[in-house]
Amino acid sequence: MRGQLYAGQLRYHDFAKLREAHRLRRERQQQQQAQQRRSFVANTLGSNTPIATMNSLAPTSALGTVLGGGTMSIINNGRFSGAGGIMNSGNRTFLTASLANKMSDFRLKQMERVANNNPTNPTIQYEFLSELSRRYPEAVVERFEAYPDFAVDERCALLYFGALQRANSYNRFDLRNFVRRMQTGGGAIHPVTMQALQDLVDTKSSSQKKMTKTMQATAAMQIVAGAGPSMVSGGTVGGGSGGMLGGGAASIMSSRGSDPKNPIFVQTHNPSSTKMALFTLARHVLIAFVVVSALTAVLDEKGMGRAMGMNGKHIQEAEGSDVKFEDVKGCDEAKAELEEIVMYLKDPDRFTRLGGKLPRGLLLTGPPGTGKTLLAKAIAGEANVPFFFSSGSQFEEVYVGLGAKRVRELFEAAKKKSPAIIFIDEIDAVGGTRKLKDQSALKMTLNELLVQLDGFDENNGIIVIGATNFMESLDSALLRPGRFDKHVSVPLPDVGGRKEILEMYAQKTKLSKDVDLNVLARGTTGFSGADLYNLMNQAALKASIDGLNSITMAVFEYAKDKIIMGAERKTAVITAKTAKCTAYHEAGHALVATLTEGAQPIHKATIMPRGSALGMVTMLPEGDQTSQSLKEMLAYMDVAMGGRVAEELIFGAENVTSGAMSDIKHATDIARAMVTKYGFSDEVGIVYHGGSTGEESASGSTRAKIDEEVKKLTEKAYERASVSECGVFRSCFMLYVT
C-alpha cells in the first residue's frame, strides 16, 4: 500500500488508517525527542566531571565605544568578519556560498545600525541577535556581555545561551554578571524569573558550591526558559523545597522538559531541499550569464573586445593574393566572365567614360569543390587589390544585433582600403529567404547586408563576391540587379577540364611512365576539382605505403575505386561457391557489353568486394555524355541483365541468386524513364508524366499501361541478353567460362 501511495496510485486523504498511523508516528517521535532532551539535562546537572577552563574573552578596545563617541560595527571586527562561515554551508555549493556570505554581511550591518540607533528596544535587539547568531555566535556572546546599555529580555538571554553552546564557551559564563546584566537590561524581565535567578546566586548549599559553570549556565537557561504561566504555577519562590536550587528554581527546572505534556520547545533549521538548492544555483548562474553577456556586448560595442580576441575572426584580410587565373583549371567559361571585373579594377576609366559602372556584386554558384573560392582569390590576385573574406556563419552569434554590426565592420574595413574585394563564402547562411518565423537577428543581418550592397551610401570601388551551392535558398531581394548584378555558374569540370586539373596536380608529384591522365579523366566523370585533388593525394599516400618511387597507373586505379566504391574488404569471408557465382555474374556483364552495339567499352572487371558490392564491371566512356540515344538505353538494359542470364545458364534457373537485384533496379528505372519521360513507348505515347515513378498524375488506365510497357522492355532486354541479341551467345559464353 505504501508503494502504491508513493507511486501516485492512492491518495493519502482517502485512508483514515494511514492518517491515524501518521499521527501516532509523529507523537512517538516527539516523545523520543523530549526524552532525549531530559536525559541530556539530567546528565549535565548530575555530572561531577570538571570542564577545562578557558580565559574569558574580555572586551577589547577594537570594538570601540558603543554609545556616544561613534559606534564601531561588531561585524567589521577582525575576529568575527567571515570567521564563522554559514551554519548551513553544507547545503550550499561553492559557487553560491561566496555570494550568500556577502549578502548576509550586508544585511547584518544594516540590522546592527538599526539596533545601535534603538538601544532601549529589546525586540529590535532580539531581531539583530537572532540574525547574528546564525553565523557569528561568538559575536552574540560578546555583545550580550560587553555592552550593558543594550536592552535584553528572556528571548535575548536564550539566544545568548545558545551562542555559548555553539561557541563552546560555557567556561566564560559568570552567573553574577549574567544576573546583573538581566537586571540592568531594561527589557522588562518577568519578576518571577529575576527572583529565581537571584535565588540561584544567593543559595549557599553544598551542592550549589560544587556546580560547574556549565551546570550554572544550564540552570540559568532552565529558569529563563521556564518564564511565563507555567513557572508562576510552580509554587512560591524561595519556599525552601530541599532541592538543589530552592523552591522557585526547583519548580522552574521541573516545569519544562520533566513532563511530556510540557516539553522544551526546540527550533531547528531544516536543510534546504535539493530542488531549492538547484533553483538557487540556476538563479545565480542565470545572473552571472546576464552580467557576462552584457559586459561582453559593451566591450564589443566599444571595440575593446577585439584586442582580447573576442571578435575579429569575421574579418580576415589576405593582403596581396598570389593566386592568378592561370592557377584555376577546369572552368574556362567562368574565368572569361570574371576577366571584365579584373579589367575594371585595373582601368576603371575605360568603362566610366561611357557611363558604365562596376557591378556591385558577383554571385558564384555551383556544386561544392568546383573552385568558387579559388576564383575569388584569383580576381584579387590579378587586380592586385586587398581581399577580405568571411563566411556567412561567422556573422551570427548568441548576441542579438551582433551580425548586423559585423556586416558594417566588414564594409567599413573594405572602404578604408578601396578599391577592394569582399568575399562571403556560403552566403546562403546569412542571405536565405526571409520568413515570418525567422529570428529577428537573422533578419537584421540580412537587412544590413542589403543596405550595404545598395543603400543610401554608395560603396564605390568595393566588389562583393558571394559563393553558394544552394542558390534557390537565397532571398529574392539579394539577387536583384544593383546588389548581385552578375551570376556566374561554376559547374563540374568536363573531361578536358579534369585532364587540366590532373596535369596541374601532377606537376607537384612524380608519376610513372605508364600513367595515362586522359584515361583517368575519362574514368572520373562527376569528379570536382576537390575530388581530383583527393584522388591524387590518395594515390601518393598509397605509393608511399607500398614503397614505390613514383605513382603508377595501378595505384591510381586503386585510389579511384576506393573513392567511388569504398575500401577493399580483404578480410570478408567469401566461400568458393559465392566467389564462383560472382565471377560468372560479372563475366556475363562483360560479355554482353562486348557483344552489344551501343554499349560503352569495358574498362575493368573485378570480384574484389568493396562496400556492399561483391564485384563490379566499370565502363570507360569516350567523353562526357549529355544525352543518351534509344540504342544506348537498350544496350544499358541488356548489359544490366547479362549477369542474371549468366547465372541461369551456368547454374540453372533454380540456382539464380539475389545478386542481380541492383541490376534489375537500374534496368527498371531506365525502362520507366523511357516510357514516362522520354516518349519511347507507342502504347503510352509521347507524353511526360512527372514524379519519381511517373504515375502520380496519371489515371488508372494509364498507370496500367505504364507498368505493362515497363515490363515488356525489361523482358525483351533479358531475352536479348540470353538468346535474341546474338545467336552465338551460348557458345561464346561457354567458350569464355571454359
TrEMBL record:
Keywords recorded for this protein, A-Z:
Hydrolase, Metal-binding, Metalloprotease, Protease, Zinc
Q: Signal sequence span per UniProt? A: none
Is Metal-binding one of the keywords? Answer: yes
Top-level taxonomic group: Eukaryota
- Pfam families referenced in this protein's UniProt entry, alphabetically: AAA (PF00004), AAA_lid_3 (PF17862), Peptidase_M41 (PF01434), Yme1-like_N (PF21232)
Q: Look up the coiled coil feature and give its residue ranges.
A: none
BP GO terms, sorted: proteolysis
- Required cofactor names: Zn(2+)
Question: Which GO-annotated molecular functions does the record name?
Answer: ATP binding; ATP hydrolysis activity; ATP-dependent peptidase activity; metal ion binding; metalloendopeptidase activity
Q: Which InterPro entries match?
A: AAA+_ATPase (IPR003593), AAA_lid_3 (IPR041569), ATPase_AAA_core (IPR003959), ATPase_AAA_CS (IPR003960), P-loop_NTPase (IPR027417), Peptidase_M41 (IPR000642), Peptidase_M41-like (IPR037219), Yme1-like_N (IPR048438)
Which SMART domains is this protein grouped with? Answer: AAA
Looking at the record, the residues that make up the AAA+ ATPase domain are 358-494
Q: Which family does it belong to?
A: In the N-terminal section; belongs to the AAA ATPase family.
Q: What is this protein called?
A: AAA+ ATPase domain-containing protein
Where does this protein come from, organism-wise? Ditylum brightwellii
